[in-house]
Design brief:
Blueprint: E1 2-7, E2 11-16, H1 47-62, H2 69-73, H3 79-90, H4 101-117, H5 125-154
Antiparallel strand pairs: 1-2
Helix pairs in contact: 3-4, 3-5, 4-5
């Protein structure tokens, strides 16, 4: 622990983190508020590495979730809409996605009906987008299955 004495009329002790060099915000602090390193411990060769990991973790925890494009479409207020988008995401998988398309369509329609019963001007677009995507992806999936079944008979001798 590093104590520095300031001479501004009275003695005052300031705790300084040995890993990152930040002054403690409280006189009774046990851990650094910036990097999380113990203020009472001695400096070890791994202190700087541990401090950098903690700083990175804090930066990712504080990052805004809304900055991701996929997070913009997921509704945190309406679970039906969030479920519909989850099923729409799973339905994109070729050939297997046809199993998720009906559930995406069903949850999208249910969230749209819930919106009709309980109008909310903020959440009007997302259920409609979920239903539209479910219909489009269902059409693509069905056409893929149609091609898979009929590919043998299309080019055969006849």
């Amino acid at each position: 622990m590093s104590n520095s004495v300031q001479r501004s009329g009275s003695l005052q002790y300031t705790l300084t983190c040995l890993a990152c060099g930040t002054n403690a915000s409280r006189s009774r602090a046990r851990f650094c508020s910036t990097c999380g390193y113990s203020l009472s411990g001695d400096y070890t060769p791994t202190a700087l590495l541990q401090a950098s990991y903690h700083q990175r973790r804090m930066a990712t925890l504080g990052a805004s979730v809304n900055s991701e494009p996929a997070a913009l479409m997921i509704s945190r207020q309406n679970n039906l809409t969030a479920g519909a988008f989850a099923f729409v995401t799973f339905s994109v998988v070729p050939f297997l996605g046809v199993l998720f398309c009906p559930f995406a369509l069903l949850l999208g329609i249910c969230s749209w009906l819930q919106l009709v019963r309980h109008p909310n001007p903020v959440r009007t677009v997302r259920p409609a987008i979920a239903v539209a995507l479910a219909i489009v992806i269902s059409g693509v999936q069905l056409s893929l299955w149609w091609m898979l079944v009929n590919v043998t008979t299309m080019g055969g001798p006849g």
